[in-house]
């Protein structure tokens, strides 16, 4: 008896499209090429490209490897919006990607939405005493906003150096190498918002 061809499922197709867009946005946010993600996840570049274009049905094992490489979870990547509800999204702490500085003393939690990561990115920043976070230049015209909630920091951009303590905000050009250092004796907690170049040009 001939096997019947599976009929297209709109819900499945929509989920596949959302998954592909999510992987692409997370990869772009981390400045990872297809090759970088392939190397860190062990998933072939061609497969990642097909997933991003919604041209493949990845296995759970494949999604697990990709989510780990992107610093998130499978559940977070495939979760869908709750239509009709005022709540757009709720993220658990284990689903929040975390970046560490080279010295291991600074931590950035990506708390911004992946839907807006190409224009604006925001983070929860924490640093132990002496911690130094060095960043490469963002796209030309980008501005970084750092609001100190507790502790004291020094921000340096190409030889210029400014200090800020709890309650103060620094806004500086981030399209050149820059760094944030905890210069106090206690832990630093801050909120960081990066407005990327294309967004800056739009609102200027």
Identify the notable features of this structure and list them briefly.
single chain; 204 residues; alpha+beta; 434 Repressor (Amino-terminal Domain); Jelly Rolls; 2 domains; 4-stranded antiparallel sheet; 28% helix; 28% strand; disordered N terminus
What do you see in this structure?
With 204 residues, this protein is α+β, with helices and mostly antiparallel strands. It has 2 domains: 10-78, 434 Repressor (Amino-terminal Domain) (Orthogonal Bundle), CATH 1.10.260.40; 97-203, Jelly Rolls. The protein has 6 helices and 10 strands. It has helices at 10-29, 34-41, 45-52, 60-69, 74-78, 197-203, and strands at 98-100, 106-110, 120-127, 132-135, 143-150, 152-157, 160-165, 169-173, 178-182, 188-195. A 6-stranded antiparallel β-sheet has the order 1-2-3-10-5-8. A 4-stranded antiparallel β-sheet has the order 4-9-6-7, with no helix packed on it. Strand 6 (152-157) and strand 7 (160-165) form a beta hairpin. Helix 2 (34-41) crosses helix 4 (60-69). The chain is elongated.
Q: Proportion of β residues?
A: 25-35%
Tell me the number of strands: 10
- Identify the CATH architecture of the largest domain: Sandwich
**What is the straight-line distance between the termini?**
66 Å
Mean pLDDT value:
82
Q: Please identify the structural class as seen in this structure.
A: alpha+beta
Order the strands across the largest sheet as they lie in space: 1-2-3-10-5-8
Number of domains: 2
Shape: elongated
The CATH H-level homologous superfamily of the largest domain: Jelly Rolls
CATH level 1 class label of the largest domain? Mainly Beta
Described by strand count, sense and barrel closure, the largest sheet is: 6 strands, antiparallel
Low-confidence regions: 1-8
CATH topology of the largest domain: Jelly Rolls
């Amino acid at each position: 008896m001939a096997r019947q061809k599976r009929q297209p499922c709109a819900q499945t197709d929509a989920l596949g499209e959302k998954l592909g867009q999510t992987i692409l946005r997370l990869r772009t946010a981390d400045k990872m090429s297809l090759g970088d993600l392939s190397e860190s996840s062990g998933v072939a570049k061609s497969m990642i490209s097909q997933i991003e274009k919604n041209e493949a049905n990845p296995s759970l094992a494949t999604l697990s490897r990709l989510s780990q490489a992107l610093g998130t979870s499978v559940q977070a990547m495939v979760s869908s919006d709750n239509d009709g509800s005022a709540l757009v999204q709720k993220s658990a702490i284990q689903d929040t990607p975390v970046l560490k500085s080279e010295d291991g003393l600074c931590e950035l939690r990506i708390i911004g939405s992946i839907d807006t990561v190409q224009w604006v990115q925001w983070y929860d920043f924490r640093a132990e005493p002496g911690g130094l976070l060095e960043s490469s230049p963002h796209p030309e015209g980008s501005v970084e906003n750092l609001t100190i909630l507790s502790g004291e920091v020094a921000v340096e951009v190409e030889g210029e150096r400014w200090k800020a303590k709890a309650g103060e905000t620094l806004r500086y050009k981030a399209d050149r190498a820059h760094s944030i250092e905890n210069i106090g004796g206690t832990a630093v907690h801050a909120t960081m918002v990066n407005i990327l170049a294309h967004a800056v040009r739009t609102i200027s």
